[in-house]
Amino acid sequence: MSDQIPALRLEGIVKTFPGVRALDGVSFDVMPGEVHALMGENGAGKSTLMKVLGGIYQPNEGQIIVNETPVVMASPLEAKAKGILFIHQELSLAQELSVAENVYLGELPLKRFGRVDWASLYAKTDEILARLNVGFNAKTIVGSLSIANQQMVEIARALTVDAKAVIFDEPTASLTDAEKVVLFDVITDLKSRGVGIIYISHRMEEIFKITDRISVLRDGQHTGTAITAETDEDQVTQMMIGRKLDLSRNAVHHELGDVALEVRGLSCGDLFHDISFEVRRGEVLGFYGLVGAGRTEIAETLFGLRDPSAGTILLNGQETRIASPIDAISRGISLVPEDRKGQGLVLGMNCRDNMTLPQVDTLKSGPFVAPGAENAIFDKYKDRLDIRTPGWKQTVGNLSGGNQQKIVIGKWLSMHPSVLIVDEPTRGIDVGSKSEIHNLIRELAAQGYAVIVISSEMPEVLHVADRIIAMYSGRIMRTFTSDEVTEDNLIQAISGITNDKVA
């Protein structure tokens, strides 16, 4: 690799925003046929660096060099024309358009007089989709696809040109295990054709499975590069955050209180069936299962976003009907959703107003909201959750994914719920912030909250939960205590093996 010319090189990149030096003289390169991981805590500068490379941001200082030629990326289309493709962590698709129109957006094949060559467009797109082995075609409307399939449309964009380098920003965050296999096959194919891959992920197992080198950013600076085969998770973590993490299974037990929430025989159409469980004050109850098992749909039903077709919900021993999120909030149930950008935040609004949005009516002094009360709430949870932002006026859309998630969690904690439901609490969040949020969840339980955690990550539920409900195809297969659960019996349960077979 040392004899090759880098497919892409960045030298001394500086990028500043008002009050923030997001990148401080970063140099980075990727070789042809290399998968190069870029890691760091949320706010370390990874996404900013890639947005500079992808033509979304313009650097204040430094150079971008493609095949030893300095270039200026004035826009994403110009970056793409130079062979640099960016597959975003957060989807950037036009929901009302077809898959083909999204894949070739801005570059639609034309016939005479500027008319779109639809036959060519659909044929070219279907050829790409065949490589990805997906279950939809070029004419499918993107908005009708699942989040996971929309991510595959993003990936299809990378296969439309002769790429020099492709940036994957948290590409597996919404993918099933089967779709991950397809993605890794695509990456292997790109690598074999000499394309340089920049792979941003917080998932260590993926990093060590598919990458050749790992570079780390901390506080906007490049702290080092290591050959993947010559390092390990502990060393990379220390490069990222400067300390070791305790990610062992939860072993802290404390006194549990009364039952805060009980569910009896809850069903919702074909989504889930005959769900019964309870969660006590001081307890963390984990839900674990494959994509489509019904976990998120249960949370949405408890929060009033779906109408149950059968069953009973009891809060503090009293039967209740939750017809809307307003009902849920008034009864002390809060939901941190999986889709923080689509459901948890108003991206164009500032940090403070996002955090206080559900309680605006209670913060009024006369006809106006009291800014002092709003500021006090924001300051409290900014410190408590270590939210990294120059101040409350910062637009939430400008924060890193991890800090956005902390804003959502702070919003609901400030409502002092009795039951807190957290769906994928650390999706797209770095290992340091994961540890902080895990510790926070345990602290909340110790303070008397009843916490439900829904997660697709086995180490997460093993670490934070007192009990774990394993789901398969809309049904509860088995409930484990933290003392009896193992990785093997948990995997068996979520794979549809019956209780008798597991036992």
From TrEMBL:
SMART domains, sorted: AAA
Stored SUPFAM superfamilies: P-loop containing nucleoside triphosphate hydrolases (SSF52540)
ABC transporter domain: residues covered: 8-244, 254-498
Bilayer topology annotation: Peripheral membrane protein
Enzyme Commission designation: 3.6.3.17
Molecular functions (GO terms): ATP binding; ATP hydrolysis activity
Catalytic class of the enzyme: hydrolase
GO CC term, one of those recorded: plasma membrane
Keyword Repeat: yes
Keywords assigned by UniProt, alphabetized: ATP-binding, Cell membrane, Hydrolase, Membrane, Nucleotide-binding, Repeat, Sugar transport, Translocase, Transport
Pfam families assigned: ABC_tran (PF00005)
Primary location group: membrane
Places the protein is found: Cell membrane
Protein name from the UniProt record: Sugar ABC transporter ATP-binding protein
Source organism of the structure: Octadecabacter antarcticus 307
